[in-house]
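Let us practice reading a record.
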Amino acid sequence: MTPLFDRNMLHVGWIDGDHVFDRDIVWRAFASGDHLFCAVSNAWRGSRHGSALLDTSGLIVAWREGEPPRAARRLSPAAMAAMPMRPFRPKRPIDPRRPLFPQTPLEEWSPLGWQEWLFPLPPAGPDDADADTNRAPGNDDAAD
């Protein structure tokens, strides 16, 4: 098991071969080729590029020590990978030491945090719009 870190060098999870776990060793994502998919919904979450896990825009969400993480151009999966068998829950490794800051340009880091990447919000529907958006500015429906 190899620790994963975010842009602030905080330990956010683990990677073990093609499987991504959170800090509590709960299986959250799997890799098929260079693509990463949500372990629960099978939704495409992005890709991996060298030491980095990337969001769907190709920006870095998390990385493992060994080489500086680098962003990559956006990839899209050619075909949805089949859901793999759930891995056995491994024994919890000892907490890793915090790494030194990687020499990665800041613009290559994703605006998504680890939790936002693992658990994306559903897209807003037309019913979610605020009812006040159709009112003209300054019109508070008060009688003069």
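A brief commentary: The radius of gyration is 19 Å.
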